[in-house]
Amino acid sequence: MAHEHKLEIFRGLLKFKSNTQKIWGVLIFLSIVTAVEVVLGIFKPAFLIGTSFLGMKLLNWIFIILTLVKAYYIAWDFMHLRDEKSSLRRAIVWTPIFLVSYLVFILLFEATYIYDIFKTGFLAWEF
């Protein structure tokens, strides 16, 4: 028995008539998010570089969040997670989100430590 996939994105806000139209819609969405990342990476607005949040530039936080949005949406639509049971969806989606959050915490904690070492007492690398 064939399973019909849902032909909508953004929780039903956009509905399509065929799978081909849906794929084009998802491609356009992912292209827009990527274009925003590229434009921010090229122009690097001063207010995003000068503003710091939790020890990291706001521009870096935007890149991390947009990358997570793209990864989530790729898994949601192209890996057909929307058609699975909610417990499987949560296990697949939330695990990497917690892992990335933990890795960002480690990045911030270690970067602050290394910055303090270089700022206060760095003489030479002695390994």
Q: How would you explain this protein's 3D organization?
A:
The chain has 127 residues and is mainly alpha-helical. It has one domain. 69% of the residues lie in helices and 6% in strands. The strands form 2 sheets. The chain has a two-stranded antiparallel sheet with strand order 1-2. Strands 3-4 form a two-stranded antiparallel sheet. Helix 1 (19-43) runs antiparallel to helix 3. The model has no long low-confidence stretch (mean pLDDT 83).
Structure keywords:
127 residues, mainly alpha, two-stranded antiparallel sheet, 69% helix
Topology:
Layout (H helix, E strand, L loop, with lengths): L7 E2 L4 E2 L3 H25 L2 H5 L1 E2 L2 E2 H21 L7 H36 L6
Antiparallel strand pairs: 1-2, 3-4
